[in-house]
Amino acid sequence: MSRFGDAAGVIMKAAVVLTALLCAISSFPRSTLPCKAERTRENNPCSWVWQNPLPQGNDLHDVVAIDRDTAWAVGDNGTVLKTTNGGVDWCVLYPETTVSLMGIAALDASTAWAVGSGETVIKTEDGGRTWKTLRSGGYLVYYDIAIADADTLWVVGDQDGVLKSEDGGDTWILLPEPQNCGFRAVDAIDGERVFATGRCSDASEYNVSRTVDGSNWSVLKTGNGYTVDISALDEKNIWVLAHAFAMRTGDGGSTWSFRRSTAGYPPLLGLCAPDDATAWVVGDEGVIEKTTDGGKNWVRQDSGTDKRLDAVSAVDTNVAWAVGWGGIILRTDDGGSRWTRQTKGIAEFIHDISAVDQRTAWAVGSKGTIAKTTSGGNSWSPQRSGTGKDIYSVSAVSEEVAWALGYEEVLRTVDGGKTWKVRDPVINSGYMYALSAVDDRTAWVVGNGFIIKTEDGGDSWTLQWEDEDYFLSSISAVDENTAWAVAPRTVLRTLDGGATWERLNPGLDTSLGDIDAVDATSAWIAGGNPPSLDGELYSMVARTEDGGATWEAHRKTDKERYLRICVVDAGDAWLLSSRGVYRTADGGAQ
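Above: the chain sequence. Below: its structure as tokens.
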């Protein structure tokens, strides 16, 4: 009962959500978490908890270090994190927003401001336990915020000019900038001396500007390129980062020295300079570089990851944090000789998950990743899959038996994952996309126009159904005789072990992507088309209780795409969509 295709991108980003969507599981025991008061979202009665990776897996876009112990980070879906013990524990905080937060500035462990999409500005004064929304509801993106003190704030984004507050964010004024630039980054020395950089109306030209009186802006420098970050040590020493180079001035902007990073490509995205000689830059594909001679020479450092890094913040020349996509958090205590990952869990993208009971489950993902939990997801142990290829589907049968599927190979374990044996079904019809197993010997696989079955543990496979016009994306096996499969507009069912397959027409105006069956008569399907310009229906869930003769549609929408359906029983089901997770306990009535 797995699927692949367009759903995979969302599922990769939501491994923890899938942990909670395990079929035959209605709830997981809540793990023991540090910062308990801060990590409990009182307005979330479902109590969803990230299980992999930890502390969470949303992309992070900015980080600010206060001292060796204290740092804040922000990212997508309203994510705010804080550590007060050097990153040993990161507390997940819950502001009342789900927008992408792009920048954060903090006075200390108690007071911080964050900015992001939807012209959002939020503030906390109690360490993140509660948040006040200062601005929201627009269509622009705020990328960065700088603070001079508890009252004086500066915000930059897509708007032309710079927002300034002199009362901690309660009221704001927009200060025009000479070239009407939408700044990407800002840094304040004090309430009057502030520097900003970004891209102007000419998409190929950058701008570096400053104010020395807190109100009037002047241009220091323009040129070709895309500047993304700025670090002002004082009114003379300023560092600016572009995608392909860093530049520095030591005389307040009269002259600039350009130093092309040895990275070249991939693009650089974040900068932090603890002094006029030392700076770190981070970027795509896990790039981290450091200079200790004012930018004359840059040394590549081993980040230990190929994930995109969006931001870096340094306490001094030795201690720094870097954050990026997939929620990755890195820290160095020795100037970058060694970067330590502070995120825990499965590092690769997770494509599928399958559970045996409330404690035991397997997850599979890219680069041959297989991991198992026997603690309800509190911890995951990697297993040797025997392949380096991506694994897209998994079907857990018992604590000892599980099957997994890649594009061209099937894997099976009968000893709890201690060993996995790779099987090649030798199918010439096309790629395989989903697998569902009944026991240690019986399993079905569907793919691009075919259904195959094994009854001897994968030693041999029988082609049961073939039609090149049908792309089968999901299958759900009830027992050795009964199974359901789904194609974009068709449902297939067998009651005789696959000797014959009945084509059922749900009559639904949507592209079906996933199926989960309870028994021979009861099954759920879900899917969705890309959004149409005229707002026509493109997603729905449907249920049959008569073997597929009729289907009752639920949750018709043109607002989101349905990706996966997991059924506990005929009336209890979980739904993963492009916007979130839903549950019904009454057969879909609500």
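The first helix runs from residue 7 to 13.
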